Amino acid sequence: MCAGFLIFEHVALTSSYTRLGLAACDTDTTAACMSNLSTFINNFGWLDYGIYWMLLLPAMAGIFVGAPLVAREVENGTFRFIWLQGITRTRWFIAKVLALVAGCVLGAAALSAIIMWALQPLVRVEGILLVSTMNRLVPPYFDLSGTVLLATTLLGLSLGILAGTMTRRTVVAMFVTLLLFAIVRVPVTLVRPHFAAPLTATAPIGASGNRPDLPPGSLVLKEGFMDAHGGTYELLGEATPCASQFHSDAEIEQCFTKIGLRVYAQYQPPDRYWLFQSMESGIYAGVSVIALLASLWIVRRRLE
Amino acid sequence: MTAVVETEQLGKRYGNLWALRNCTLALPSGSAVALVGPNGAGKTTLLELLVGLLRPTEGQARICGHAPFDEASVVLPHVAFVAQDQSLYSNLTAAEHLTLGRKLNHRWNDVLVRDRLHRLRIPLDRPVGRLSGGQRSQVALGLSLAKQADLVVLDEPLASLDPLARQEFLQTLMEAKVDSGSTVLLSSHIVSGLERVCDFLVILATARVQIATGIDEALTTHVRLVGPPTALPALSTVYPIVFSTETSRQATAVVRADGEIFDPVWELQHLSLEEIVLAYLSRTRLDDIEPKEEVATRAG
Question: Residue B54: which of A78, A91, A304 has the nearest Cβ?
């Protein structure tokens, strides 16, 4: 279903992209290009909402596949049958986990690949305009692409399995899974823009709009005004009384130059995408391994 | 006689409560053992310790010389287990369970089992959740027999069966036992009928083993004596008294007497298995009020 939707949208995106001739608008910032880019965004900007719900998929894997894995066996008493066959509970657990993880992570890999392929035109256009809704470094795109989608799927499953093993009750485990997932996921998402120290770019005020030139696809974290000493201000009025002292534009600009006031932007460059992807995937994979080992220990020593 | 099942000071505690304690047993291999006791006596705990579902709190259990919980990979091929409440997958059919068993066990033979289920007119292609209680028990039994284990453990297999199904079940079990020569251990709080299929008896009450002995031996060594109350103290010095009651005119005592009883003041009566079991259980009922050291020796 997701794949069908994404393929359909990809066709729509590509045809519109070609029709508007956006491929040429990379560096060209003429009015015509700008208006075409805006038309494109107006038509497809909603797509980030269209895929936002897919962020729930890894949690769903945990809730509906991970949580019942052990809990349902204990609840239904079937562990008394299945653990008394020729293989030990350890082997049973490892085999089940490997099969489920392989299946779910494979599915996630497919979805991630389709998303990266299907949304290419939109990501590109939003990158040029520095619109952050479909930035590669923020949700939903960051979380649904690359290796992070695979890692969050593994995380959801592992936390689900742990919750089911700890509580031994399927329904309780489902809620615990969601809770654990949020506890790991939310802080990481909040910290993500600071995985590496952001870069700062400055430009004279008024030289190129009100923002320094940034590489397309950059994620702007903060922008405003910076004086000669490096002090930053969000509002011009806080930085200097220039604007209220003088009236002509020339005088005001001269005043800015005199005190060394420039515009600045603090940003993450787009080429940090894979660095951030691997850092975040690493965190989730680490938590997943811990959760799975804890579950295995409970199954081996504590479940009776 | 080698022992398939041995336990030594085996105990299991839940919180502050001992479900089983000081359990030292050796069950002769090839025998059919009845584990008898009231509800809550620790029967399920003992059985689940033996098959490795539970981990002992103290002491140890040995199945064919190995610890069932810690050495599960060694012990599992030797034991088959039928749990008390239905432990089969209710959405899977009997045939699917048999397939599962074949894939999860090295040794597996379900030819006889299929025949038997077929003879009992139990549909193999219906989810076991939609079979009757008796049919499900037969399927569970069949699965445990297909495993061809040295020890087949059944936890209260008769409890949910009507008398006819009970008879069919025991018959299936004993036929299979004769075929395979395996040791069978089954728990029950219903005593009647067990002496026809079992040859060894373990009585468990208040978390302790009261007696473990051959059924024939139990029947010949336990007698009820009726006589004057004044003779009771003297009697207790000679024989272990299992249980006694007295009125002002008459005393009744169930004793375990390894030899003949010559004292003419006592009138001697033979006991049925059920009466012997009842005597032990009545005693523990009194023990609940005032615990005292066990009278019975634990025979191997």
Answer: A304
Provide the token pair at B117. 């289920």
What are the residue ranges of helices labelled H in chain A?
Answer: 2-19, 31-44, 47-52, 57-60, 68-76, 79-82, 89-118, 120-129, 141-144, 148-167, 170-191, 236-239, 242-245, 249-259, 273-297
- Residue type at A238 in one-letter notation: E
CATH 3.40.50.300 matches B3-205: yes
- To test the contact with chain B by mutation, choose from A74, A78, A81 the residue with the greatest count of B C-beta atoms within 10 A, namely A81
User: Which pairing describes strands B151-154 and B79-82: parallel, antiparallel, or unpaired?
Assistant: parallel
Select from B70, B87, B90 the residue whose CB has the most chain A CBs within 10 Å, as the one to mutate to test that interface: B87
B288 backbone dihedrals φ, ψ, rounded to 5°: -60, -35
DSSP letter at A197? P
**Which H or E run contains B104?**
helix B94-104
- In Å, the largest CA–CA distance within chain A is 89
B55: nearest CA partner in chain A: A304
Considering only the beta carbons, identify the residue of A78, A82, A84 that sits closest to B80.
Answer: A84
Q: Rounded CA gap, A139 and B104, in Å?
A: 44
Distance of alpha carbon B81 from alpha carbon B95, whole angstroms: 18
The conformation of residue B239, written as its DSSP 8-state character, comes to S
What is the spatial distance between Cα A113 and Cα A150, in angstroms, rounded to a whole number?
11
Non-local CB neighbours of B127 within 8 Å, separated by 6+ positions:
B90, B91, B92, B93
Q: How confident is the prediction along chain A (304 residues), in pLDDT tens digits per residue?
A: 667 778 888 888 887 887 777 777 766 567 777 787 888 887 787 787 788 889 999 999 999 999 999 999 999 999 999 999 989 999 999 999 999 999 999 999 999 998 898 888 888 888 887 777 778 888 888 999 999 999 999 999 999 999 999 999 999 999 999 999 999 999 999 999 999 999 999 888 865 557 788 888 889 998 888 888 888 888 777 777 777 777 777 777 778 887 888 889 999 999 999 999 999 999 999 999 999 999 999 999 888 7
Domain map of chain B by residue range?
A: 3-205, 216-289
Q: How much is the ipTM here?
A: 0.86
Interface size A-B, in CB pairs within 8 Å, comes to: 59
Distance set, CA A27 to CA A17, A30, A129, A213 (Å): 16, 9, 11, 11
The verdict on B160 touching A (C-beta cutoff 8 Å) is no
Whats the size of chain A, residue-wise? Answer: 304
Contact B115, B175 (CB under 8 A): no
Short-list A140, A129, A134, CA closest to A56:
A140
Phi and psi torsions of B90, nearest 5°: -70, -20
Looking at the domain that runs over B216-289, which CATH code has it been given?
3.30.70
Distance CA B235, CA A269 (A): 98
Q: Is B105 on the interface with A (CB under 8 A)?
A: yes
pTM of the model: 0.86
Distances (CA, A) of A78 to B47, B88, B90, B171: 17, 6, 9, 26
Residue B283 belongs to what H/E stretch?
helix B273-289
Q: How far is B50 from chain A (nearest CA, A)?
A: 11
Name chain A contacts of B77, Cβ cutoff 8 Å: 86
